UniProtKB/TrEMBL annotation:
Signal peptide: none annotated. It comes from the Bacteria. This is Tetratricopeptide repeat protein. InterPro entries: P-loop_NTPase, TPR-like_helical_dom_sf. It comes from Streptomyces tanashiensis.
Length: 666
C-alpha cells in the first residue's frame, strides 16, 4: 500500500493506493482494477466555467425571442426551432453569452447525434474535474456529468442542432435543476419536454442592417428581399460581395443568372458545408424514407411562397401518403402550415428550383384544376379561393420562361389572369401576356386565342400594357381579321393613342393610315371612320386647328349617328380637352354643360350616361379654373357616383374634387 488513507465508522474501508481484496467481516469484494483519485479531483471550479461559440458581431434584432428566453419556462427547458440557416444557433449563443454571471457552468454541446451529445457531456466532466482526464472512460465521464447536473442548480446547457427530441429526453429527465436551451430544425415533438420558440426570418430593416454592416451599397434592400431575409444567406452573400468587390445589385444579377452556383458561393474561409445550397441537404437526406416529401417540395418550389392551397397536392398520392409527407416536411421546418394552406421559405424554393425537379409536375397539377373548372357562378362565389390557385399559376409563370409552354399552360395563364381582373392588376397583365406569347409560338399570329388573351388586358388596362404589346395587339388583329376590318381599325386607333406619349411619329403614322383604310373600306360616315378621324384630330399638335376639326366632326356625328351612340360622348370629351388646351375654357364648359343637358333630357339623372357626363363637367370646371363650382358639383355628385359606379376611377376623381381645399377655405 502506498500513501495514507483514514476511515471511521463500523466496517469502514479506506485505501491509499491500489488494493485487490477488501474484507469487512460481512462479505469480501475482489477489486481487479482499482484507481485511487486524489481528494482534489472531487472539487469543481467555483465560477468561470464557460464554453460557447465565438460571439458574432453581426447579431441584430430578435427582441421578441430574447424576451421569451429571458422569461424562461416552467420546465427550465426551451427550444429554438426553425428552418436551417434561420439563425437559431446565433441567437442561442448571443443569449447564453449574457447569462455567464448568473449561471455556472455555461456549456455548449453540439448535439446533432446521441454520440455528439455524450461526447459533449464527457467534455463537461473533464472541464469540471480535470483529474478525470485520461483516467475514466468516456461513458463514466458522461455519467459523472449527469450526476453533477442532477445534484446542482444554476447551470446552463445549450444543446445545439438536436435532430430528434427522443435523443435528449433521458438527459432532461435527470438534469432538472438548471436551464437547458435547445436549437433544432424539428418544429414538432417537444410538447411534453419543453417550451418551443419559433424563430422567424429577420424583418426587412434588421436584414438590411445585417447586410450593410459587411457590405453597404446600392441594392441592399432588394438583395435582402430576394434572399428572404434569411440570416445565413445574408451573411454569406454580404461577405462574398465584400470580398469580390461587387455591389449588392451586382450580386442580384449573379443570383438571377446563375442561381444554383450563387447559392453555393461563400467567401474565403467560409464554411462550404454551411452554404444555403447545402444546409438543407441534411434535412432532405433524413426525409429520404418518405420520397413523396421530396416530390412535394419539388412542386412547391415552382409555386408561390405562401398561401398554397393544400388541396392542390391531393392528386400526388393517397390521403394518408400526402398527409404523412406534409407532416414530415413541417416537422423538419421545411414548410409551415396555416389552416388549409402551406408556405415555404422563398430561398428554400430557389435552391430546390435550381435543381430543376418538379417543374412539369407543378404545372400538371394546376392544369388539372383548370380542366375541371366549375361553373362561373361557383367561381364568382368562391373568388378568393380560386385566386389563391391562380396565384400559383402566376408564380409558375414567373419562375419559368415561355419557350417550352404548352397550349395547356397558355390556357392556364390566361385563366389565371382573368381571375385577377384585367382592368387593374399588373399580375393579370403579366399572365395574359404570357398566355398570348404561348399561343403565338404554338399556333401563329392568326390564332384567335392569342388575340383574345391580349385584347382583354390591353383594352381593360391603361397602365398594364407596353408599346411592344400594343404593336403585338395590332399585328394579331391584322392576322386574325385583316387590315381593313372594323375591329382592326378600332384597335389601330387605340394602339396609336397608347403610343402617342412615347412614339408620336409612329402613332401619327398609324392614325393617318387608319383614316385612309376606314374611308376606303367602310365609307365616310361610318362609326369607325368618325372614331379614326377623332383620334387623328385629338393627337394634333395645334390645339386651335384640332378644336375646329373636332367641332365639325361632332356636328356631323350628331347628324349621322344614333343619339345613344357613346362615340358622340367620346368626341365631346376629346373636344373639351382640346378647347381647354387651346385657351377657350368658356366654350369647353359650355360644351360639357350641353352634354349634361342632353343626357338629363334623354336618360334622367340616375342613369350611368348622365352620371359620367356630370363627373366630366366637374373636371372641366376645374380645368377652366372654376374650382368652387367644381367642388360644389362634386359634393352633390359623390353619393350618386358611388351608387351608380361603385368605387371606380370616376368616383375617385369626383371624391378628390369634393375634398379639394380652396384658398377661400383659409
Amino acid at each position: 500500500m502506498t500513501g495514507r488513507a483514514d476511515a471511521s465508522g463500523d466496517r469502514a474501508v479506506a485505501a491509499g493506493g491500489n488494493i485487490e481484496q477488501v474484507v469487512t467481516g460481512d462479505f469480501s469484494t475482489q477489486v481487479e482494477h482499482g484507481v485511487l483519485l486524489p481528494a482534489e479531483s472531487l472539487s469543481v471550479p467555483a465560477s468561470g466555467l464557460v464554453h460557447l461559440p465565438e460571439r458574432t458581431a453581426l447579431f441584430v434584432g430578435r427582441a421578441e425571442e430574447l424576451a421569451r428566453l429571458d422569461a424562461g419556462a416552467p420546465s427550465g427547458v426551451q427550444v429554438l426551432c426553425g428552418l436551417g440557416g434561420i439563425g437559431k444557433s446565433t441567437l442561442a449563443a448571443h443569449w447564453a453569452a449574457g447569462r455567464i454571471d448568473d449561471h455556472h457552468p455555461v456549456w455548449w454541446i453540439t448535439a446533432e447525434t446521441v454520440g455528439e451529445l455524450d461526447a459533449g457531456l464527457a467534455a463537461l466532466a473533464r472541464a469540471m474535474q480535470p483529474a478525470y482526464v485520461g483516467v475514466l472512460p468516456e461513458d463514466a465521464l458522461r455519467e459523472r456529468a449527469l450526476q453533477w447536473l442532477a445534484a446542482h442548480d444554476h447551470w446552463l446547457l445549450v444543446l445545439d442542432n438536436v435532430s430528434d427530441p427522443a435523443d435528449v429526453k433521458p438527459l432532461l429527465a435527470r438534469a432538472t435543476r438548471g436551464r437547458v436551451l435547445i436549437t433544432s430544425r424539428r418544429a414538432t415533438g417537444w410538447q411534453d419536454l419543453a417550451e418551443t420558440i419559433a424563430v422567424p426570418e429577420l424583418d426587412p430593416e434588421e436584414a438590411a442592417a445585417l447586410f450593410a454592416r459587411v457590405c453597404p451599397g446600392d441594392g441592399v434592400a432588394e438583395v435582402c428581399a430576394e434572399l428572404g431575409h434569411l440570416p445565413l444567406a445574408l451573411r454569406q452573400a454580404a461577405a462574398y460581395c465584400s470580398e469580390a468587390g461587387i455591389s449588392p445589385r451586382a450580386y442580384l444579377d449573379l443570383l438571377a443568372r446563375y442561381p444554383a452556383e450563387t447559392y453555393a458561393l461563400t467567401a474565403e474561409g467560409g464554411e462550404t458545408g454551411r452554404t444555403v445550397a447545402r444546409v438543407w441537404q441534411v434535412t432532405l437526406d433524413r426525409l429520404e424514407d418518405t420520397p413523396l416529401a421530396g416530390r412535394i417540395l419539388g412542386v412547391l418550389a415552382w409555386w408561390a411562397s405562401e398561401g398554397i392551397p393544400r388541396r392542390l397536392l391531393e392528386p400526388l398520392g393517397s390521403p394518408l401518403e400526402v398527409t404523412e409527407a406534409i407532416r414530415r416536411l413541417r416537422a423538419h421546418s421545411m414548410i409551415a402550415l396555416d389552416g388549409d394552406s402551406l408556405s415555404v421559405h422563398r430561398v428554400v424554393q430557389a435552391v430546390v428550383r435550381a435543381g430543376g425537379a418538379g417543374r412539369e409536375e407543378a404545372g400538371a397539377l394546376l392544369v388539372g384544376v383548370v380542366r375541371r373548372l366549375p361553373h362561373p357562378d361557383e367561381v364568382r362565389a368562391n373568388l378568393v379561393a380560386w385566386q389563391a390557385i391562380a396565384a400559383q399559376a402566376e408564380a409558375l409563370a414567373r419562375h419559368t420562361g415561355p419557350e417550352q409552354d404548352s397550349g395547356e399552360w397558355a390556357r392556364l395563364f390566361e385563366w389565371a389572369g382573368l381571375l385577377f381582373g384585367m382592368a387593374a392588376d399588373e399580375r393579370a397583365v403579366f399572365l395574359a401576356t404570357r398566355a398570348t406569347l404561348g399561343y403565338v409560338r404554338l399556333y401563329g399570329m392568326e390564332d384567335k386565342r392569342a388575340l383574345r388573351a391580349l385584347r382583354t388586358v390591353m383594352v381593360g388596362s391603361r397602365a398594364g400594357g407596353s408599346p411592344e404589346l400594343s404593336e403585338l395587339l395590332l399585328a394579331l388583329h391584322v392576322g386574325v381579321y385583316g387590315p381593313d376590318d372594323p375591329r382592326t381599325i378600332e384597335a389601330r386607333s387605340r394602339v396609336a393613342e397608347f403610343l402617342l406619349p412615347s412614339s408620336r411619329e409612329r402613332a401619327e403614322a398609324l392614325l393617318r393610315e387608319n383614316v385612309d383604310r376606314a374611308v376606303r373600306s367602310l365609307g365616310e360616315d361610318t362609326r369607325e371612320t368618325f372614331d379614326a378621324r377623332r383620334a387623328l384630330f385629338a393627337a394634333g399638335t395645334d390645339p386651335q386647328a384640332a378644336a375646329a376639326d373636332l367641332e365639325v366632326l361632332l356636328a356631323r356625328a350628331r347628324d349621322v349617328l344614333p343619339e345613344s351612340d357613346d362615340l358622340i360622348q367620346i368626341i365631346e370629351i376629346s373636344l373639351v380637352a382640346v378647347l381647354l388646351e387651346s385657351g377657350r375654357p368658356e366654350r369647353a364648359v359650355e360644351l360639357a354643360e350641353a352634354a349634361v343637358g342632353h343626357a338629363l333630357e334623354r336618360y334622367g339623372a340616375a342613369r350611368l350616361e348622365t352620371v359620367t357626363r356630370r363627373a366630366y363637367l366637374a373636371t372641366t370646371l376645374e380645368g377652366a379654373g372654376e374650382d368652387e363650382r367644381a367642388r360644389e358639383l362634386a359634393r352633390e355628385l359623390l353619393p350618386v357616383c358611388r351608387a351608380a359606379l361603385g368605387e371606380g376611377e370616376v368616383t375617385s376623381i369626383v371624391r378628390r374634387l369634393a375634398r379639394k381645399r380652396l384658398p377661400s377655405d383659409g
